[in-house]
Specification:
The chain has 75 residues and is of the alpha+beta class. 27% of the residues lie in helices and 17% in strands. The protein has a domain of 52 residues. GO terms for molecular function: dihydroorotase activity; metal ion binding.
Amino acid sequence: MTAPSQVLKIRRPDDWHVHLRDGDMLKTVVPYTSEIYGRAIVMRTWRPPSRPLMQRSPTASVFSMRCPPGMISRR
């Protein structure tokens, strides 16, 4: 009898700290993150950071437009 395998494969790990930016960087980061990782904890990053509150668009809304349906959980 052979010993049980001691290998743990994490096929789609979680990314626990992702910053999304507007524009071209968003278009670059979101497909990469959703392809490699199973889930991501997204941190808001506003550029420029001093943008007035009324001019900010919710990151989750912008992110969800770039992800396949069912990929976003807002908890």
